[in-house]
Amino acid sequence: MPRSDSQPESPVVAYPGWFTDFLDDRVIRKPSPHTTKAYRQDFEAIATLVAGQAEDVVNLEAAALDKDTLRAAFAVYARTHSAASIRRCWSTWNTLCTYLFTAELLGANPMPLIGRPKVPKSLPKSYSDNTVTGLVTAIDADTGSARDSDWPERDRAIVFTALLAGPRAEELIRADIGDVRRTDDGGGVLHVRGKGNKDRRIPFGKELLDVIEQYLESRVVRFPPARRRVPDSDTLSRFSSNAPLFVGVDGERITRGTLQYRILRAFKRAGINSERPAGALVHGLRHTFATELANAHVSVYTLMKLLGHESMVTSQRYVDGAGTETRSATDKNPLYRFLSPRTEYSNQPVDSRGVQGS
Predict the structure, then answer these.
(1) Is residue 9 one of the residues assigned to a domain?
(2) What does the H/E/C string look like for 172-194?
(3) What PROSITE patterns is this protein classified in (predicted)?
(4) Which of 223, 245, 295, 345 is deepest in the core (most CB within 10 A)?
């Protein structure tokens, strides 16, 4: 059985000099903290299997990393890890062995001769219209609740930002208020710091900006600023640009646990928790964003830019179509129907064309 992502940290081991040199080489490329952590975890897992025990990893010679040794280690590793974990670990070791080859510490990179699970070719599952309707209706049911933990304005902003801009969960958590910029056409742009410290800008419509501003207005009520700012018609200007965009009930940056729990709670309250794929919460909303744009005939290249994918192969899973500019592409997103013709969500049935009844 593949073990879950909540597995305990790998034992701390001393690194051989050639792996420390590899990490130093990667630092120059400015990897994200998540990537650096993955390098260490994946190295420790396989190196411990090759060396026999964690204490001997420090003495491991690069020349010992041949095809048969690494294949045997990966075979053991695969017994207790998911396909996604194996692919990531394989990628780490492929990068490492490529470095060792260029540093003339290996005669060849053996990783291409070691098998790995194929990337699933099936389209990631998105949420249906009825699922999105139920999700938002469950959130709106918290309006007027006396419980501090219930904050429908914030939860709506989280859901619609994920649906209409497609950020990853970590990108939502790291977003600051200064990352939301108003544009001349009345909409906005979300500046996202993505995987590998790669930035991208995702344009969105006025309807989403209204939802975000309604949430920020409710936040001012919950957490009155210590110093009164100069009155400004622009809600975004009332906050420091480096203040977190989404916060918990304590006023601090929202945690991953809280973010995922609020969406899970909405699914359960709506009675539709069985309709989502296992583990799909924020990422399911991101898949829905991508799938709807694919259905609107957005090009693979444009979708790759909006989602922050490194390869078109990943984006190709969503779409085959002609090219358009990113602004016109996001404006095509049919999910805006959930915020039209007014920002206040209307719980009306959606017909087969995706049009709400009157």
Answers:
(1) no
(2) HHHCEHHHEEECCCCCEEEEEEC
(3) CB, TYR_RECOMBINASE
(4) 245
Radius of gyration in angstroms for the set of CA atoms belonging to the chain, rounded to a whole number: 23
DSSP code per residue over 5-58? TTPPPPPP-PPPHHHHHHHHHHHTT---HHHHHHHHHHHHHHHHHHHSSGGGGG
Least confident of 18-27, 64-73, 113-122, 153-162: 113-122
Mean pLDDT score of the chain: 83
| Number of domains the chain is built from | 2
Alpha helix ranges (H) inside 193-280: 206-222, 256-270
Strand, helix or coil for residue 351: coil
- Which pLDDT does position 157 carry in this prediction? 96
Q: In CATH, what number is assigned to the domain containing residue 283?
A: 1.10.443.10
231, burial (CB in 10 Å: exposed 0-12, middle 13-18, buried 19+): exposed
Per cent of the chain over pLDDT 90 is 54
CB neighbour burial string for 38-52, b if at least 16 within 10 angstroms, e if fewer: bbbbbbbbbbbbbbe
Nearest residue to 154 (alpha-carbon basis) of 210, 214, 215, 209: 215
Indicate the residue type of 309: H
pTM: 0.60
Last residue of a domain, one of 113, 142, 171: 113
